[in-house]
Specification:
By secondary structure, this protein is mainly β.
Amino acid sequence: MHISRPRSVLLAGAVAVTLSATALPAAFAAPSSTAVISEVYGGGGNSGATLTRDFIELANAGSSAYDLSGFSIQYLPGSPSAGSLWQVSALTGSVAPGGRYLVAQAAGTGGTVALPTPDATGTVAMSATSGTVALVSGTTPLTCKTAADCAADTRIVDLVGYGSAVVREGSGPVTGTSATASVARAASLADTDDNAADLSAGAPTPVNAAGETSGGAGPGDPGNPTEPGTVRVRDIQGTTRVSPLDGQSVTGVPGIVTGVRTSGSRGFWIQDATPDADPRTGEGVFVFTGSAAPAVAVGDSVLVSGKVDEYYPSATTQSITEITAPRVTVLSSGNTLPAPVVLDAASVPDAYVPSADGGSIDALALDPATYALDLYESLEGTRVKIADTRVTGATTAYHEVWVTIKPNENPTRRGGTLYSSYTDQNTGRIKVMSLDTTRPVPVANVGDVLSGTTTGVLDYDSFGGYNLQATELGTLTDHHLRREVTRKQKGKELAVATYNVENLDALDEQGKFDTLAAGVAVNLSSPDIVSLEEIQDDNGAVNDGTVGSDATLKRFTDAIVAAGGPQYAWRYIAPENGKDGGEPGGNIRNVFLFNPERVDFVDRPGGDATTAVTAVKTKKGVTLSASPGRIAPTSDAWDDSRKPLVGEFRFHGKPVFVIGNHFASKGGDQPLHGRYQEPTRSSETKRVKQATEVNTFVKSLLAVDKSARVITLGDLNDFAFSPTMAALTDGRTLKPLITTLPKNEQYSYVYEGNSQTLDHILTSPGVRCFDYDVVHINAEFADQASDHDPQIVRVDVNAPDHGHH
């Protein structure tokens, strides 16, 4: 099994592998006594060649295994131009002492003899006559273009320049390469950092880690059989999530091609046309061809030989069972495809996944009749069919849409699926993508329906788990979801809103400002106070020490006026440069906008990035030591995170304290669909500490005046049922208003088809009469100015104590 770097744009966030404990190499001045490049051949597939592919062979002259996890082979043309780039082929596994390791590269149209099963496969079309190959500690492309610059790069373990290569070790490159000749190191594997002395030309002799040679001279070379072997797809998939044949070579596995992926992680799916009776053993599997376009078509009957591998998109996801480095024999074309398995409310279990008490579920026997994820796993690589599915997550920029195959599973008022607890997962959610790049999924909003039948192959990735790679898409039925407009506050009501404006800075396009401004002026009906999250400094991600955001706020407030809103004033405290997390260089912060025609801001000096605001007892009640101020900014709860902004306002002569928050994100948490169950929410620890700091501050205000009107709001990055919320509301200091709505309206954010709440408004007991609304204008729509919906509360500051309405 291996955990790979991302293989497509859809896997752009996959977790990289930590480098092994192998010592980092020195520059060319210290020849390698362990791992070396033992042979290089760029003539594979050329006219006159015998072998069909280029290759690089590694060897280990040391006395212990050499770990290649996180390493790469990189190739540079022999005479690099200014635009030449090093091409990277990632490596996994290790080289045994005295052993070999084979990296296959691009195939040509010539040659008749296949390489032995490679230990790693790249896609580089190497020159037969001149080039440079490097063994590199890491997978980041090298940038050196001269021998001297490369000698200074300590990531290079070994380097071979051949033909007339500019980049080489020693006085000159090794010569003599051709369509029929490689360059190889002597049997002693001696490395003197002089390519011309250490290697010489001769007939190619590739050897892999198993000791196999090309042409079947070693064990296990399957060639291109015309009769099925003994292994079937179900034997590869097995009865757990990990193949019992992981790491083993297989020969002549029969199947019908059911889907072909020509972009990103290229390859095709095969499915056995004669399934067994065991529902646990899958009948479909993905054949990974790297960046080479698959040379098969849907309906082909094929025999596939290659190596079984469990590919983990990231360290915490489940794996995808694959056949890698494939050799394919097409027996016939135009065959009838296996009938798809119907996925619907009746066939998908209500229980989500078995528990392993936080451990891996990889080894647990599948129970597809009991658990939804076990059912989906048993169907990985298999044709499935869904019908008339409601959209629960709008179409993304990556042409993905989330639907539910269970129309009655926790529906929201507007057509989504509510995520309401850690233990009640929505098992009917599934992501749909199109395998036909000329016909992507339609642009859909929550509540729309993919009408009719959608058919395809069930796959898995790190962004949401199981997904349907559609070969046939249903048609879109538009349910005309509309953006909400909240009512205007009455004269006696103080309207306070929260809005995450998604990394807004003065360099953004005017269209983003205009859309966000219309959200404030029109959809929120111009609140008296708006607590903003994700306002960046004036040059955004440019990392030059800028921390002010007045240019950003002037553009935003001018756009609000242009949209029909009031001329807002603003208050914020600029963060210390680089201390508040978020996008590097962006210096994200919380900001208060307020309408000075309706509400007064009480300015008190002394608030800065590192001074803690405190509650001050006066004859007239509680005030702030500084306004605006920050809550405990030097507490480790806020390390590399946004600090809460506190402001004192006066409305109709009454003081109101507003706390704008943006708690730490959920980054680093294990996914709901991952291999560790139940998943660990590692980021929660920090948010609980942050919530405790805010709760402590609110208690300090209420200790002076128990009837103080405190409104705490913002992007808390956590749910109403979370430990974060329990810490924030400890002692009944604050009431989360999201819980006052009907259950099917308790959300402001949509993630992977789940409607959930990360943004909140909470009020102290002194806020006695309020009207609260989540205003849905973003999260459910494919076209969105932010990924968050804003919220608003309208407070009657003079209301008697008779509850909310």
